Every structure is written in structure tokens, then in C-alpha cells.
Amino acid sequence: xxxxxxxxxxxxxxYSLHMKxxxxxxxxxxxxxxxDIKYIAGLDASYFRDIGASCAVxxxxxxxxxxxxxxxTARVKRYIPGYFSLREYGLLLEAFKxxxxxxDLIIVNACGINHPRKCGLxxxxxxxxxxxxxxxxxxxxxxxxxxxxxxxxxxLKIYTIKLKKAIVGFMITRGNERIIVSxxxxxxxxxxxxxxxxxxxxxxxxKPLSLAHKLSKIRLEEDLRNLGICEQGxxxxxx
Length: 239
Prior knowledge:
Elements: H1 2-25, E1 39-48, E2 51-60, E3 65-75, H2 85-97, E4 105-108, H3 121-129, E5 133-137, E6 144-153, E7 156-163, E8 166-174, E9 177-185, H4 189-199, H5 207-226
Parallel strand pairs: 1-4, 4-5
Antiparallel strand pairs: 1-2, 2-3, 5-9, 6-7, 7-8, 8-9
């Protein structure tokens, strides 16, 4: 009975989020509302079992230097493919709310419109905070990479990703490294690509995301030690 009730609860949670994503996808605006971007926030999180720590790092876009950091730690639900926000939305949002300065743009380690319902976590955070948002990941939940057409910029190769014949993002590669870029909300496809290209490091990770991931992992390990969980040497298994 307990297993059955848990199954029904999880099924209802997925269905509710499924319908919410479809509803929110109609609110997404792929237009540039910010022409003078001064501050960009990177949002990412790290996990150990059902404990997550998120980090929001505010960067000065002109100098690409971090100027503010905020954190959040909480118990999270297990990951369900296609429903990343069920696990991470609240955690990232709490870190974002901790920033004293509101960013002009958010870059999230999540999908934007390159999503089965065209509303990934980056889109949802952009909508809820009314802030331009870009999603950057290592893989795409939806769409097909058009490898017949490539844009070359030095060592970089840029391919479009299409979903039902519409472009929903880009794949950027250099050697064996690659990232997927997709607009989330209040930013165009071209601007999402342009800004991401200005932010990436040698491993193609946008600098605000790279630092947010590093700091979230450090914060998680500190919290686990404070909880006594790392006494058995399990902290190296965080992700």
C-alpha cells in the first residue's frame, strides 16, 4: 500500500509539473529586453543523496569578476528525467533571492526552450523572477543537432539544434568539449549565443556557472561535515 501510494504521489507530481510546463511555455518571450547588461548571475547546485546546496554567483559582465555570492541548502526530491525543476527549482530560487543586487541576466545549468515541452528549468526561473535567462548544459533534452551546417569561430564549431523544424538552441564544440546553449526567457537565440561565447572558459563552461558549481560543492561538503555525514569519508561522492 505504501509503495502504491508513493507511486501515485510521484505520478501526480510529474503530471502537475507536466501541465505547468506547458502553461508556462506560453509565457516565454524570446526577445531582448535588456540592452545594457552589467551583472550576470550563474546558478548551479551540488548534491549528496537527498541533500542539495545551491549557489548564485553575481559577476560583473564587463570585467568577468565575481562580486557577490549567495547560498541555499535543503533536502531535495530525486531526479526524474524531463522534470529537473521538481528537484532543483526551489533550491536555485532560494540562492537567487539571497543576492542583494538583482542581475540583468541569469545563466543556469539547465535547459531553456530545448526541452520536450519547450520550458526547461532556465525558462521557469526566468519567468518566475522576470529576468532574462539562458540555459547551458552538456546535453539537450530535446531537439536534433544540424551537423550539415556549421559556423566556425577560430577553434569553435557552432551547430544549431532544431525541434519540430524550429531552432531551439546551439551546440558549441572545441575538440572533445561541448556545451548546449538555449534561451530561457526574455532573450533571443542570437543574444543567448553571443553572451555565452563571451563567458566561456577553456573547457567551454561559462565562468559564472563554473564558479557557482565549484562553490556549491564546497558549501555542500561544509554542510555535510556540520551534519556529521562526512565523518565516514563520503564527501568525495558529491556531484
